[in-house]
Amino acid sequence: MERRTFVKSAGILTGGLVLNQFKTLAADSAGIFKIGVIGCGDRGKGVMHVINQFPDKFQITAICDVLDFRLKEAQKVSTGAPYKSYTDYRQLLDDKSIDIVLIAVPLNMHYPIAVDALKADKHLYLEKTMTFTISQALDLVKLAKSRPKQIIQVGHQYRYSPLYYRVKEMISKGYLGKISQIDCRWDRNGNWRRPVPDPSLERAINWRMYKEYSGGLVAELLSHQIDFINWAFDTHPTEFQAMGGIDIFKDGRETYDNVQLMLRYPEQGMIGNFGATCGNAHDGYLFKIKGTKGTVSLLTDRGVFYPEKELLKEKGLVDGVTGATRITWNKEGGTPILAEPTKDGTWYALKSFYEKIASQTLPDSNVFTGAKTALSVHSANQALYSREIVYWKKEYSVI
Description:
It comes from Mucilaginibacter boryungensis. Helices cover about 35% and strands about 20% of the residues.
């Protein structure tokens, strides 16, 4: 049986929802924005590589990290002259020529550096999770409201992927029917450690493993999927249950290496299951959204729609969902959501970030949505480490 993809052969940018997001704006004439990067670890350098793919929009001019060897590694990312280099981020913020600050530091430092960057009149690309605590998230929202001309984008990059946009559209149009279950995993088989050249640098380098600096697997991995559900359904969980432990690596770490969350979304009648382990990599990244008419199964760059049997009996309905002229089925009975895999979500996020700064409009992943996801992540971690049910609080409504 032949099958069609969810997008017409003319390309994935034909739909109005995606077209509005990715069209070339007149604001492209705004010029090149200069960027200072604070935090040059794996994520910081990774984003730097993507920034360099937009030479007509961005120019990295300065970098900062407390570790000298990280600064040396980051200099290798330069495509031109060496970057100005700092070990004190305040010195970077003093540079009046810098328009944008990228913050990719340990989670406990997100908030203080973000506050100082905003007070230094910089636009801000703040990596996820937005803040280390709930109170910091609420305070950052208040500060952002007082500085409306500064654009703050939070690094939940899947909000910008054409694939995830399409899935959000499918949900809003009811193509999946009544959705009741979300199943997510982000697994790996390894201790999650980085090499430490000096034992005194253990906590500075492997900060993700220590509660003083990190929200562990929930903040570092599962936050992406939690954020997408918040966005796709315009919601947030209100009840948080969790369990976990240090079950695999008995190496002095404090954050759990094996976690399972169960979140309740009563307005939608949904249960979200979010899990991660450092002891098995078979599933890797897994993201399933299950409704009465079908299931969406997502990777980071591709996805498949699996219709329920009853849907197939309704002539033309699947074609109406896909928008194609012919449908081909894989051996599991699914059809691709997009014809081709998408780029890294960070590429789409940075493209949109430029447009939002130039047009002075609110990013899709902004300080308000970033706060909502941070509150969700930290509530889940409270449930995880306290072994108690945690509930969304009324005072969070300010976001």
